[in-house]
Amino acid sequence: MDSQDFTASILVDQTPEEVFKAINNVSGWWSGEIDGDTNKLGGVFTYKYQDIHRSKQKITEFIPGKRVVWHVIDSYLSFVKDKEEWNGTDIVFEISKKDGKTEVLFTHVGLLPSIACYAECAPAWKFLITDSLRKLIMTGNGSPFEKE
After folding, report:
1. Arch. (CATH architecture) of 6-139
2. CA distance 72 to 59
């Protein structure tokens, strides 16, 4: 992974298995409409948020309690010149034990400071991982943006 790829991490008291389950409950922490299979290797799902962002992800790695990778096979971002900027990127969740807690290291491989959507996508991912996903893991209720 390129050291400039966007990353965020969280530490929680829950087990790696509980964390893995929460990550794969995508609609529980990511705002917008989720359609398709988010819980198995080879699963394909779409994400849509208004007319601003659409993407289709394929789950290319699915190792319970350890790692999940979504490969973006199609995307549309209304707010940047290259509407398909996410195409071919990977969204990676690595789960490990650290100091008696469970760590989630999130990396959006290909989301670099040099691309147009970074200024808006990086803060959105940071909120979704460090706030919404963390809350889902810890309480069973995430806090995705209001669905409209």
Report:
1. 2-Layer Sandwich (3.30)
2. 9
